[in-house]
Fold these 2 entries.
Entry 1:
Amino acid sequence: MANLQEKVSRLFPEATFEEGEILLVNIPDAKLHDLVKSLRDDCGFDYLVTIVGMDWVSSLGCVYYLTSSLSKEFVSVKVQTTDRDNPMIHSIADLYRIAGIYEREVYDFYGIIFINNPDMRRLFLNIDWVGYPLRKDYDANPEINPVSIENERQTDHTDSWVEQPDGSIKHERPRVFKEDDFVVNIGPQHPATHGVLRFRTAVDGETIQKIDVYMGYIHRGVEKLCEDLGYMQTLHFMDRLDYFSAHNYHHGLCLAIEKAAGIEVPRRAQVIRVMMDELSRIASHCLFIGTFCMDLGATTMLFYTLRVREQVLDIMEKTCGARMTFNYDCLGGVMADLHPDFVKDVKALLEVLPKNVAEYNKLFTGNVIAHNRLKNVGVLSNEDARSWAITGPSGRASGWACDVRKTHPYSVYSEIKFDQVVRTEGDSLARFQNRVDEILQSKGILEQLLEMLPEGEYCAKVPKVIKLPVGHWFQVVEGCRGLFGVYIESDGSAKPYRLKLVTPGLPAAAVVDHITRGQKIADLITIGGSMDYIVPDMDR
Amino acid sequence: MEMRHVTAQGIPYEAWKDNEYIEKLVTELQESGTNVLVGSLDKLINWGRSNSLWPLTFATSCCGIEFVSLGAARFDMARFGWEVARASPRQADFMMVAGTIVHRMVPVFRRLYDQLAEPKYVIACGSCAISGGPFRKSYHVAKGIEDIVPVDVFCPGCPPRPEAMIYSIMQLSRKIKVERFFGGKNRQESQKEFLAAHPIEDVAAANID
């Protein structure tokens, strides 16, 4: 960290630094692009984790989190602007492909315009939406933005603010599609989009030319809701983002708050949490296999895979008391101790898993039709995976070893022996096989955890109302679909000043445009399915 | 006159909840009176309709996954004749609104409802569809779907267990059994009243600039 600070201060004397768990670089907007470019090219920060939009009342701004896939080091960059009426910050969309989408999200929530971003539309809200909802002075009066059953206004144009050579800013209105493009609308009500997602697809015959991913059909404003709730109360929303990774997301937010409040978690609780994470992973990947095969026409697979999923849900139900929205991890540990049958049930599950996975492989993976439809379809290169921030099994299918459990171990993962499942093909088949293999990997992890499950407390004593000191914290965990990050900023009160959730779903949907170009439209279903995005997860 | 005991899927009448509601419907039906021939025809049609309800595959969030479980082997809705989930609203009988409906989704949702073929029914499944649920205070969430479409059955839960979903569809089929299609004021008319009270003013106004 000291090296990095020295290097940056040599190149950018105007930068100021805030030491902490993660180095924070304050930089004026004019130098932002140069700084990020030199971080990417010279220091190896090749992965943009997130852009956190912020409203500090006196100023608006962004915090960029970058990490390096080689050194695993994090760095954050902070930019501020005091102009509230017309805030502008330079874009880094040309450095990281995913930045374009993240900047649109910040624009949607805070109204910050990113200079040189080619596509500055709103991301989740209608174009006629009044105000920027995550600003602290947002007027939430429902009469200003009423629920309307009129069709929302559509436009073929986008906005772009381009910096001219003389330094002035010019507003342009480029078209999203070319004038003579043939655009087919897919979704939001379509069985193969896995929820309410819409693709505006420009096709030439059967070949896809461009896809405009249109989101927001399930944008529920979780981040804003959290700002009005106590830390304990924010937890239950984690169940409802990616409902397959409910435990993992809970774990992430708990770790972030516990880190900030200095709460010590008993060892038994840590092991229980990790066990639940891995059980969710098995259930999640099982459902993925089922629905993915169903998209391709193999309806029967759903019944085979849901059999295992129901078995996992039974185990969870006994301990957590629910099938889907568990709300099990709490601050300081878990809500309740394990059910007496837990160990027996998990052992029974682990016993049947290999047989089931062999059956899936026999039925589907080796099938020649499946191979023809999956192999070399939707290839994502390693470099693109990092630029588009595709993590989880999809990123690992492109040869990028991005498993947070290995790269930034949390809880008891550092004591467990397992290997990341990495493939280099980067096609739909590799993404599919990675998930099948991860079921067995989770089995191995669970076996070790059962061995080391200690006796003791399942929850530490924590005060009823938790107040965090002034500051900010960032925590990443591995969800079932990739990296899940939590950014908390506290002003010292019992409510978060800002809670930003970094979800793997958003990049996974955004990249569909990139990897489907030049492919056939029938493969769109395959590719979209193999990315395994969850729509409430991307929209939040 | 003796009260007709409406039941579905062979469940004893006493085991049902909300019998008063169905009894009210039965009384209404009996009071309005009809001749024997048309009444029997009604019964026949209702028997057919209530036993082959086809759902629309419509899911926005968590509840949708429980609906998938409902289709799989353990809960197996094929037992009751509901397994023919249709992706097109033109072929479906009822819509299980499984999940949150947000501002941007409202026009789409309403259009899907309008596209359903008559007779059509709506089950509000889960607390989000009923009232907005945990997201009620959000700036972008509709506070229940009751203002958007007429709802036949409410199924509470977050998400409701698959058993609760089965029960809600059974209640729907019970409701269908006491419907009236010939003579008198039928349900289609009351639906039209609802739609007239919640009009889409100008579809053409949603133009492309």
Note: The first helix of chain B runs from residue 19 to 32.
Entry 2:
Amino acid sequence: MSNRPVEHYVAPVDPADSNEVDRVKLGDRKSNLWIDAWRDLRRRPLFYISVAIVLVVSTAALFPNLFTDVPPNNNCLLANSNGGPEAGHPLGFTLQGCDVYSRMVFGASTSLSVGIFVVMITAVIGIPMGALAAYYGGWIDSLLSRVGDIFFAIPYFLAAVVVMSVLSQHRNVFVIALAIGGFAWASLARILRAEVLQVKNLEYVMASEAVGRSKFSTLLRHVLPNSLTPVIVYLTIALGAAITAEATLSFLGIGLPPSTMSWGNDIAQAQTSIRVAPMALFWPSLALTVTVLAFIMLGELIRDALDPKARANR
Amino acid sequence: MVEIIPATDVPVDPNTPLVSVEDLEVTFVTGMGDVEAVRGVSFDIFPGETVAIVGESGSGKSTTATALIKLLASNGRISGGRVLVDGTDITGSSERQMAAVRGGVIGYVPQDPMSNLNPVWSIGFQVREAIRANGVASGRKDVEAKAVEVLQQAGLGDAARRMKQFPHQFSGGMRQRVLIGIGLAAQPRLLIADEPTSALDVTIQKVILDHLAKLTRENNTAVLFITHDLGLAAERASKLIVMHQGKIVESGSSLEIVQHPQHPYTKRLIAAAPSLASRRIHSSVVTELGDDDVPDMLKLATRREKAEADLKKAPIAVSVRDLRKTYSIRRGGFKSEPLHAVDGISFDIRKGKTLALVGESGSGKSTVARLVLGLERPTSGDVTIDGTAMKGISNSDLFKLRRQMQVVFQDPYASLDPQRSIGAIIAEPLRVHRVGDHAERQARVEELLDQVALPTALAHRYPNELSGGQRQRVAIARALALKPDVVVLDEAVSALDVLVQAQVLQLLADLQEELNLTYLFITHDLAVVRVVADEVAVMENGKIVETGTTEEIFENARVPYTQRLLEAIPGAGIEFAS
């Protein structure tokens, strides 16, 4: 090495540079994962669109009379069979001469209740199965995960077909939701299990136990709330998927009985006269597609909003 | 156009800079606008010279280094100044031209040996890939031979067999050797080493750095160290560049800077560096740096020395007797073999004192922490806290005992529940133990925030708004909520920058004096131990190999393992003039 002298450079002292170490700098607004996610969602037009659709569908489901005063099942006159739009019947008539618009409005309640029941059943079975398996580990994990694997191995739609065929005497909204949700929870359990496995090793979980909180209470208080992100996203998308599943089962004739208003039933009925009256098929299909799309979009938006990295890269 | 000449053929002119950085500016585009990470940095690196850039996180030191080889993150760009390599400005060079500079002229050793090797390819594949990319050798046989040579040079024994192995079969030190080997494969004239050993134990760090020094000296390779560790920089580099907030605050010869810092920031940094304080501790000079806001390792150390005098008088607060913890590790099929994580250790901590439990990774020190806290039950042996034995304790008694002992963990980013407000986090122990009503707990939270020098307005905020040091102070406040006697500090300051680390250590020392706390200070960093501990226990492979007062251990270590640990403290070898 050379003996070249090294110049000693000292930067001029910036008088504004304080000696204070690690000063607390707070933003004007509070911030945590959910608050930030909410702020992000409010800036996205797609969020408003999907929420608006969900709200309209929910209102139609709860108060169908706000949208129409034509009863969906009575007053069907065969004279009107496959008739076009006319005053008071903006979307025309079905093969049986029932009002298409009215049936569309009244079908929302069925689709939405099936979706909500399925999500509830999935959550009630899937969340405890996944969370307990991951958090307690050992033989509990082995047992619960294997049970989950068995259900995971059965395609839920196939299982629902079998259940609905067997229970053909008891077809109603709750049974169909049980048939779908009872076999669809295994994926949710898996997703949650993976998340809990990560969270449970974080130091705040250990700190909570060191304070004296019981293991179960720690699970409820700290582990679950921090593992719920993927669960919420999954359930929102699953709601849309469940509505499709119900429509598919009804379309196949093993879903809800024809007496129950359902988009799937209407699509099934309309397909026979698709050449003469395509609009009777189109409208319930549109309602189904738009509703399912709204839930899936909402799920995707929530996922984006809850992921700080995705937020930063946008 | 950059002309690439193999290093060995260049007539080296020691007085022409190899790399010359002039007024370098780097800007990152972020969601919150443009951020200038590097603002007008200039320096030269001459052939064969060893330079270190020192700074805290966010100082722009790593950004400066990556700008030299134009490997900035995709949202960053060189927004001003020039980088001359052999007199040619590379700021405008194309990717193709840069590919020739990288590896060939400037080699790079990345920071984290754990994530910088691809786990699905064998070590040999990755070394051969680097050799081919740099055009050092061609043809299967030549490349193979060169790869073996590179790994042997990097100090990897039995290289030919090792090449068939995969990264997970290598220890952290061995992986770092592989990365150094790759970095030096094409005999570059400058090697950039970005925190090359931060993830490694001190003894391994020393071996690796010694080896790196030998290799680069033999080939007259210049080295640019990027490090947060002033001791390491001063020991390994002849020239030091201190960076702060994207600017150079001071640069010059290493010894001159650590012995006679001029800039106030450098002065504070050096006063706060535990590795340097550990040498200065017995120098009678209590420097003029003693600005009261400045956390000063020296003051901490002096205070500790005073405390050592009355060490033996205090009653025993924590007593550990013949503690063992054995895990059984599955070995495929139904076979399992025992792992003695803690293998019959005993120690006492006196009330109001600090025992440092020191060991390298895998020594079992964190398991001891969990056993002492009652988070795990020992296989045999016992822990006694304030006269209460934990052996066979009922759950309700253990719950009561938890009020006496609390813990602060290592990772400030994982130790606070991100969904709870700071107030709720600090109040949690109070709620769990049903202390006071809501208003009383609120008042206690404010008192605690005040104690750890945080504004009380923070109670309604969430952890993600705080820096690492501030989070650690919140964790300390939570630990103190129930007025415990014993606090276990499990690597509580290891993840913090020097200045912040010194500040937190100062806070811990103040709290200890004020509240007569007993600390079990678990750490891998012997340099920190010297300034905080009254007594030291050194752990190796689940056993305590040496105990003594801090004085005895540092002045008179008898066990070779302890001596090796002490020698490996970076900067320990520097003799100070004053």
Note: Chain A touches chain B at residues 1-2, 4, 6-11, 13, 17, 19-22, 24, 26-27, 30-35, 202-204, 206-213, 222, 225-226, 311-312 (CB under 8 Å).
